[in-house]
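request received
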Amino acid sequence: VTRPAEPLDAPFYAGCQDPVLNNTARASAVLLMLARNSEVDGATASVRSVQEQFNDNFGYPWVFLNDEEWSEEFKEKVGQAVGKEGNVEFKQIPKKMWGYPDWIDQDKAKANMQVMKDKKIQYGGLESYHHMCRFQSGFFFDHPALLPYKYYWRVEPNIRFTCALTYDPFVSMQAHKKRYGYNIALWERGQTVPSLFRKLSDFKSAHYLPTSPLWTAMIDASYMPWPFRRALAWLRNRDGNGDLWNMCHFWSNFEIADLDFFRSDAYRKVFEYLDKDGGFYYERWGDAPVHSLAAAMLLKPEELHHFSDLGYIHDGLQYCTFQSTQEEKKRGFGMPPGISGKGHGKIEGREEVGCRCQCDPDARVVEP
Ligand code: GDP
Ligand code: MN
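response:
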């Protein structure tokens, strides 16, 4: 008798943990939000959602980061949203982590930004957005306020969870040796990262890094005969072999990750190489494709976790939890699931799993 293989990446728990599974020792972990003072309402809403659906039961600390000084209003309103018992820090980002490094040709950067603006590439013309993506790619994990922690959960203004999370995801990440957790995977806009895949692939070859199944999963499977592929190698989002990145990436506005992955020599080398190249400014590399392709290059498939039990909404995209189809179940909840993009990102009627979770964007799910 052959038994079905253990799913590679099943949810940590099926259904609601009732009572809430919060009696284990807390992990070394923090909730992190980068925001602007002007986003006070969106930030407050996000904090309320995370608190209600999760953190009122777990009491993890929050760190809020800003490139500017925090307004009194922000600190007061957001502090209140966390609650009296909460452990909250409002910190500024050191200048050396935010802004042009000295090797960037700022005239070229600005000229390219103008071109991106004219081409209507989202945020392409917005200088601060480029600084933000560089910070979120290469610096947040070294911010002094994060140094005490091993795991982090990234929260953005204007996000919402539609499911209660009734176990400790950090403890589970640790127990399962997971290093990178995501919820939504979707396709990047190629115009923002025309040369990123090629450069990372060159880096991978230069350092003789093995090709993990995750990396392969990022490559478009619609193969062409070799000579044709090679001939296309100079085109955007193709590597030296002519392989095409399928643009799949993890949407990093939600992330639960092991900060020591980002702090590893391997990741730092990748970031330094990209940073020297200048694509954070000459193109509009987002931190999402950078995190994703680095994870695909450096992590083992079993070190990734799809939080398929989280209902999550941001910017008009929503992930609804689902009891996978039998087919997906056999494949171990389809991991690498996001990699195919299937069932992600769009509001879709799906059978649901546990946790009084609904796909109704207006659903309020509050713990009993
Ligand atoms: P999108 O998710 O790519 O559409 O971009 P967002 O506008 O949501 O920005 C991503 C994250 O970076 C959010 O947490 C924002 O609050 C934050 N952010 C973006 N630009 C800035 C900035 O100039 N200063 C600060 N402090 N935060 C920023
Ligand atoms: Mn966002």
